[in-house]
Amino acid sequence: MRAASALILAGLALAVACLAYLSLGARGDWGFVLMFRGARLVALLTVALAVALSTMVFQTLAANRILTPAIMGFDALFLLGQSLLVFTLSGVGVAALGAYVTFGLETAVMLLAALLLFGTLLRRGQDISRMILTGIVFGILFRSLTQLLNRMIDPNEFTMIQSAAFARFNNVPEGLTWITAGLTVAVGIWLMSKHRQLDVMALGRAASMTLGVDHDRQTRRLLAAVALLVSVSTALVGPIVFFGLLVSALAHGLAGSWRHAVLLPLSALLAGCILVASQTLFERVLHLQTSVAVVIEALGGLVFLAMILRRRKT
Amino acid sequence: MIETRALSVALSGKPVLADISVALPKGRLTALVGPNGAGKSTLLMTLGRLLEPASGDILIDGRDLRAVPPRELALQLSILRQEGAIGPRLTVRDLVSFGRYPHSHGRLTAADRLEVQRAIDRLDLAGFADRYLDTLSGGQKQRAQIAMVLAQQTDVILLDEPLNNLDLAHARRVMRIAREEADAGRTVIVVLHDLTVAAAYADHVVAMKAGRVAAEGPSEEVISEEVLSRLFETDVSVAEVGGRRVVLTL
Ligand SMILES: Nc1ncnc2c1ncn2[C@@H]1O[C@H](COP(=O)(O)OP(=O)(O)OP(=O)(O)O)[C@@H](O)[C@H]1O
Ligand SMILES: [Mg+2]
């Protein structure tokens, strides 16, 4: 019952946030406003869905509520792939490929690297402190490699690369909106269809194997889905480190349930709600263009600290 | 019946089991005994395919264990592990219901719910069924885990130290359940440290030491002063009390 009311409330809140985003401060031709804002809203919702689902699924695979794909360096890996592509093909070559093909290639590099690096790590890793440390080291390594590559890239081609320290929610590359939205929804439906199996996998590797789940194989598939979702959100808005953590902590707190049938949709609704509401607030009401990411990340960072400190005590 | 042939297992590159060839009879209760670190848990985990053997074969009713698909294996074999930490915050009933997953894949039928309730009742958990596991005592948690294994209703049941944390009444209850399951035709293998309990309930005993089989046979043969004193490298006496063998170390 608590889960159902949490879902309904989050759904209503998201609807209100979306309406406010579309209508607040709109002037002039409504058709144009709706089309322009509608496309950006779709991009925001796509990012929210991708971040929420990738975080929830990754936390189930890692059997841990502090780790997220971003903390483990997934998005840094995507940016590295991006720089690598421009470096090897040159900016002209990448530009010739077009947005779709480039995104496809970046995602493929990301999938491969994520499976290689994190597949074995998840299988062994039960020691959380070591996992966090590994993630931080990976993140630094990927970012430094990216920087190195960016320096070696011809300055004229450098504009092809969008790597940034913070996410930017207000200039989303429009060409990618619809394809990434479609992709994210498809992956989301696939993940929802596996919600019962995810419940079992949350019990851990040994327990799920005794219940007949081919844990290693399913982990590889789910990890690929996580990598795909992180590719989507990073390609759209850049690296977001703590947002996923914020969303998952809220979802677990509000759901009061271990069932992925509740956790997955609730986390997605909450993520959409937070992102759209704060974007509305900062862009339309306060007229501060760039602060959304900073504020969301700061909140998420606080949650991260609080969770680590609470672990210490128990 | 479960048969192993020249089974050896290595953990982190270190050989832990060597040349294990045993035959664990169907419809019987087999006790696995031996000192700490002998390799009992390792053997049980390997039989449950949670660990991969370095070499050798395991046959279940003559069929190579490696050839059994995961889903089918979960319908044939269940295992209680020695360390069974549970991640999410579950109630006892949630946990026991997971035992039905191999049968219903998460969509519990009325028959599944009945089976879950029966397992809860058999382990005397009816009063705690809707309590969260993290609010239970060690012995109550252990019973919940055993109930989950029972709910799985498999032909082979592997229990690693099921009597951990249990008081004497519940220890007896669990051993009686293990006995009933064996009498119903299931192959039950239990790791036990209490040799008096092993003598009272087991048909067949496998004694392990330093990763090898030290003795295997009917419990009357293996539970003897000579074998046990050698196995544990300490003086063990076996006395008869009321027609039962009692193992003493003083
Ligand atoms: N992950 C591991 N890496 C290396 N060696 C291990 C590992 N796990 C266990 N061992 C070693 O393997 C041997 C057998 O361990 P096992 O847990 O099977 O013993 P056991 O007979 O179940 O003991 P106990 O009665 O204490 O439960 C021990 O010597 C142990 O130190
Ligand atoms: Mg053991």
From TrEMBL, chain A:
The domain of life is Bacteria
What name is this protein filed under?
Iron chelate uptake ABC transporter family permease subunit
Q: Which SUPFAM superfamilies match?
A: ABC transporter involved in vitamin B12 uptake, BtuC
User: What are the top taxonomic ranks of the organism?
Assistant: Bacteria, Pseudomonadati, Pseudomonadota, Alphaproteobacteria, Rhodobacterales
Entry similarity comment: Belongs to the binding-protein-dependent transport system permease family. FecCD subfamily.
* UniProt-annotated location(s): Cell membrane
- The species this protein was found in: Pseudodonghicola flavimaris
What UniProt keywords apply to this chain's record, in alphabetical order?
Cell membrane, Membrane, Transmembrane, Transmembrane helix, Transport
Chain ranges passing through the membrane? 41-64, 76-97, 103-122, 175-193, 222-250, 262-282, 288-309
From TrEMBL, chain B:
Topology in the lipid bilayer is annotated as:
Peripheral membrane protein
InterPro entries attached to this UniProt entry: AAA+_ATPase (IPR003593), ABC_transporter-like_ATP-bd (IPR003439), ABC_transporter-like_CS (IPR017871), P-loop_NTPase (IPR027417), Siderophore_ABC-ATPase (IPR051535)
- Which SMART domains does the UniProt record give? AAA
Tell me a Gene Ontology molecular-function term this record carries: ATP binding
Q: Which residues form the signal peptide?
A: none
Which keywords describe this protein according to UniProt?
ATP-binding, Cell membrane, Ion transport, Iron, Iron transport, Membrane, Nucleotide-binding, Transport
State if Ribosomal protein is listed as a keyword. no
Bilayer-crossing regions: none
Keyword RNA-binding included in the entry's annotation: no
Where does the record place the ABC transporter domain? 2-235
Gene3D superfamilies, alphabetically? P-loop containing nucleotide triphosphate hydrolases
Q: Cite the CDD domains for this sequence.
A: ABC_Iron-Siderophores_B12_Hemin
At the top level, the lineage of the source is Bacteria
Q: Where in the cell is it found?
A: Cell membrane
Q: What is this protein called?
A: ATP-binding cassette domain-containing protein
Q: Which organism is it from?
A: Pseudodonghicola flavimaris
